[in-house]
Design goal:
Two copies of one chain form a homodimer. By secondary structure, chain A is of the alpha+beta class. Chain A is built from nine helices and 15 strands. In chain A, β1 and β2 form a beta hairpin.
């Protein structure tokens, strides 16, 4: 087992400046690959359901308002380590050159947040209270993992539906802490910093101001959050969600902000379910890198509280991404975002909870 | 029809600095989306088969060694405009700001290269002569489209298999000329230029030298070409193919180079078919941007003949890309490239033609 663990590593591509996790222990044989759309057999017991707690690795944290033992039932939200982690918490962080390439040891964290005891309901179908617990627990994990000096970034994301990459149907989020900054985040930071250096304004605040003024791409807006179809959407019904006020990291969100986030996410995911025929989706929380530890290049991060603005990208999987898009970073989107937004605005988000929805 | 045409446009994302084609006429209604894996009904006549030439737009170019009329049978390779083009050749190239966003008119070319009259065979199953015709015709289209001053870049790619985005089963390549440079290419150019400025050596030549020396990631090598699993492969069995000598653009390839390209591509795609159970794949030819027209920023392109090196990325679709990878540019690959290369080296590429294969 230990020599398998030691094989997980991060590698850097010198052409695209992109990090890849080579996680050799997840699936090594050519016939062992996940085929598109493959999910666990329905007949197997669900490791995320109450009563099956012993099927998962021990819990990292769980909410038990009514009390109860760890790793037993009675929880409302439960976080466990991923059974097949891409990165492992144990081990020393090493960085070395391999000829002209770069390698970092596969140190990190890979956790699963089980959204509720309910096997069949996710964010838009759960109560506003339950969703607020989901997001406040994500925030807690973020703050906790950022205390670890080895971790540069914490990825928070959700895959919904087998064809969107969810291998277990019980609704869950994933948390991955990495010792490197993902390329897309690095790109965003650069754009935001250049904008701030030139204008002393946040790039994202400027975009939100322009979208609010125009309004044609807005899908939902509350007192605290805005959701719109981005001007240069890569795929149909892609959505961008952000606080309307400047906030660089989800770590800064107040309990009222968290409740506002739960409210707009319920609204948006309800519209996707009702309007797009329950299409699978992914969302990724784009957060500032770890600013809690001593940064290695202080000047680089000096303005991050001013120039970065956390947000969420929701991508419904309505179209297959063809290979040339993967190879070029160049996308063809058949649905103008103005039409996507108009369509989703007209959808009743429904859901099982009767909380107020945004304008 | 004309007001639909006018709606196609390129939009620039100010956060990711990424271009997107908003091609509103390809599929506008929420219920009109391509679902993953959807392909044309098998019962419908194939528009790419001989005798059905009237089902495609008029041909751009076709090889008819035995003579014959345009848009009739008797061709060996045929290039036609895409019936549902993402960009259109007619119209003026305009660039304008939309508030803080950027827009370029949807001018470009979108062509389909039909590989042979044979409905059921692609590169690895066709003769070396036929494959050489495919690649020399792609080269011709590249040279011809680069004569158009409006086009900054010409994308050459192939989707093989419905789940890799091929909507028609008759084997074909696609050609898209765009008035902008794709983000991934721009990234590569930047990396290559920085490397060259520091070392006066080509980044890609250096990588090829290191891979040749190590050898553990090489899948196939001929006198002219090398194919290896990249050190930081994003997905299992990803392959990188390049000329072993420095050449910045496919436009520079000699007839012998083209024949060598056909030879190694037949070998590699044969190994993927035989070793990976006919898994769908995509490949993209990464070529230098258009250097034939007067560049707008001459200093930027001054060294491109020295620092860029054309190559091909082949991506078998063995795993589903989950959403977080799309959202972060950060990949988890369960198969170390050294193991992928070892496995593919052991595969007999087979194929219907008896040409020599690489070492």
């Amino acid at each position: 087992m230990s020599n398998i663990i030691s094989r997980s590593e991060l590698r850097h591509d010198p052409i695209q400046k992109r990090w890849v996790i080579i996680a050799a222990d997840r699936s090594r044989r050519p016939d062992g690959f996940a085929r598109p759309g493959r999910a666990e057999e329905d007949s197997a017991p669900c490791p995320f359901c109450p009563g099956n707690e012993e099927m998962t690795p021990p819990e990292v944290v769980a909410l038990r308002e009514g009390g109860g033992e760890p790793n037993g039932p009675g929880w409302s939200v439960r976080v466990v380590s991923n059974k097949y982690p891409a990165l492992r918490i144990e081990g020393e962080l090493t960085r070395r050159g391999v000829g002209m390439y770069d390698q970092v040891s596969g140190v990190g964290a890979h956790e699963v947040l089980i959204e509720s005891p309910d096997h069949g309901r996710t964010v838009d179908e759960l109560s506003l209270e339950q969703c607020s617990l989901i997001y406040s627990t994500l925030q807690e994990r973020l703050i906790d993992l950022m205390r670890d000096e080895r971790f540069k970034y914490v990825l928070l994301f959700k895959n919904h539906g087998a064809s969107a990459g969810a291998t277990l149907p019980h609704p869950h989020h994933q948390v991955i802490a990495t010792p490197v900054t993902p390329k897309t985040v690095a790109s965003e930071l650069n754009s935001a910093r250049l904008h701030y250096l030139g204008k002393e304004r946040c790039l994202f605040c400027d975009i939100i101001a322009q979208e609010t003024e125009g309004g044609e791409r807005i899908v939902s807006m509350t007192d605290r959050f805005i959701a719109f179809a981005p001007y240069a959407s890569r795929s149909p019904f892609e959505l961008f969600v952000a606080p309307r006020f400047h906030q660089h990291s989800l770590t800064e969100a107040s309990p009222d902000d968290i409740r506002g986030l739960a409210e707009i996410m319920k609204d948006l995911l309800g519209r996707i379910r009702a309007g797009l025929d329950g299409t699978p989706y992914n969302y990724v929380i784009h957060n500032a890198p770890n600013t809690e530890t001593k940064p290695r290049r202080p000047s680089y991060w000096a303005t991050i509280r001013h120039d970065y603005h956390w947000h969420i990208e929701i991508v419904p999987r309505t179209t297959q991404t063809a290979g040339f898009e993967w190879g070029t970073g160049f996308y063809i989107n058949p649905t103008p975002p103005e039409e996507a937004a108009e369509y989703l605005r007209g959808i009743d988000p429904g859901g099982s909870d009767s909380d107020e929805e945004g304008a």
